[in-house]
Amino acid sequence: MAEAAALHVLLICYPSQGHINPMLRLAKRIAAKGLLVTCSSSSVVRDKLAAASGVSAGGAGVPVGRGRIRFDFLDDPLDRTELDLDDFLRHLETAGRLALAGLLRRQAEEGRPVACVVGNPFLPWVTDVAADAGIPSAVLWVQSCAVFSIYYHFAHGLAELPCEDDLDARFALPGLPALSVADVPSFLLASHPYKVLGDTIQDQFRNMAKTSWVFVNSFAELERDVVVALPSVTPRPPHLIPVGPLVELEGQDEDEVAVRGDLIKAADDCVAWLDAQAPRSVVYASVGSIVTLPAEVVAEMAHGLASTGRPFLWVVRPDTRPLLPEGFLDDAVAGHGMVVPWSPQDRVLAHSSVACFLTHCGWNSTLETVAAGVPVVAFPQWGDQCTDAKFLVDELRMGVHLRAAPLRREGVREAVDAVTTGAEADAMLANAKSWSAAARDAVAPCGSSDRHVQAFVDEVSRRACGGQAEAS
C-alpha cells in the first residue's frame, strides 16, 4: 500500500493575490495531512511569491504539519504590462497548456508523479491538461457557494436577469434569498467592462464534468441552504465540497502561518500601531489588491475616515497614493490615523483594537472578517463583491451598506457610526462573533471543513493505491 506521505498534489491558480491566498491556504491544509503539495502559477509571480513565502522555486520545499509544501512555476515568460486582460488570459491558456503538461512530465521524471491537479475558475483549461495526462483533477472555487449557484444557473440558461435599470425587480434561485440585479456578480451584466472574466468563469462550468472534486472556499454552516438546494437543480451541478474558510487564524502552527503569499509587502509597523490603540476603537479600511477608486472617491473616503473621530488604519496601494488630498498624510498622522501600502490583514482583523472593517467585500476579505468576528461597512465595487455585500449585511447581519453612488464623506462617517455605536451595533457585533465561532469550528480537527479535506486525502490515497496495484 502506498504511503500517504508519497502522494503528490499540484495546486495551480491565476496569478493574482485573491487567487493565490486561498490556493496557498488549501495547500497548507492538505500538506498538514501528510501529503507533498506543489503550488504553481504563472512565472509572472515567481519571484514575488518565492520571496513572500520563503520557499525557493523548484526546491524540496518546507515541512508543514506531517507533509511538505514546495513551489514550481509554469514556463510562460511574459511581461504582464504589455498585455490587456483579454490578451493576458489568452496567453495564459496558449502558453499555459504546454507549460503545465511539461511541468507534470517533469514531476514524474524527478520521482514525484502528481496524483491530483487542483485548478481554479480563471484557468478552465487546467482540467483539460490533467485529463490528457490521465490525472484526476479538482477545482478550487474561490468565491462563495451562492455565487457558484448564480453563475451555474446563468451558464445553463436556468434563470434570467431583470433589466439592469429595474432595481426593484427580484428573482429567486434555490437556497438563496430574493435577489435584485444589484446583488448578482456584475460580470453577468451586459454593461460590465470586463465581460471576458464572466465568460472565462462560465467556461469553467463547461469543463466541470472532467473534475472529480469541486472545492469551495466556504464552510457548510455558513451557506447551508444553498449547499442543500443545489443537488435538486437540473441539470445537476457538481457536488460542492466546502473546505474553508481558507484564512490564517490565530493559534495555527507557526510553520503553517510562516508560509505566506503576499505579493505586496505588508507594512511592518501595523500591528505595533494597533497595540497602542484602545480596544474596539480603530476603523480598518481596505479595497483589496485590484479595485481602483477614482480620485473623487479617494478624497471623500479620506475626509470621511478623518471625520469619524476614530483612529483609522487605511490601506492605500502605491498606485492610489497620488490621489490622496494634499496634506492628508500629515493630517492623518496628527489625527491618529495611519495609511499603509499593504497590511497583514488577517493579523489586523484579529487585533482587539479593531472596531469595524470598511471593505470592498471580496470573498477572501469577507471570510477573513467573518473568521475574525469583526462587523463591516460594505463598499462593493464589482464582480462577486456585490453578492458578498448582500449576504454580509442582509443575511449574516453583521454590518451596514455604504452608499457608493455617489460616495460622500458624510456617508462614510454615518456608516461607521451605525456599525460601531448605532442602535443595531451590539447585535451586529454579536452576530459577527457567532459566525467567527462557527468558522473556527469548521476548520478545527474533525470540524466540517477539516473532515472534507481528510476525505479528499483518503480518496486520493485510494485512487493512487488502485493505480499502483493495476500497474503491478
UniProtKB/TrEMBL annotation:
Coiled coil: none annotated. It comes from the Eukaryota. Gene3D superfamilies: Glycogen Phosphorylase B. Keywords: Glycosyltransferase, Transferase. GO terms for molecular function: quercetin 3-O-glucosyltransferase activity; quercetin 7-O-glucosyltransferase activity. CDD domains: GT1_Gtf-like. It is an enzyme of class 2 (transferase). InterPro entries: UDP_glucos_trans, UDP_glycos_trans_CS. Its EC number is 2.4.1.-. Belongs to the UDP-glycosyltransferase family. PANTHER family: GLUCOSYL/GLUCURONOSYL TRANSFERASES (PTHR11926), GLYCOSYLTRANSFERASE (PTHR11926:SF863). This is Glycosyltransferase. It comes from Dichanthelium oligosanthes.
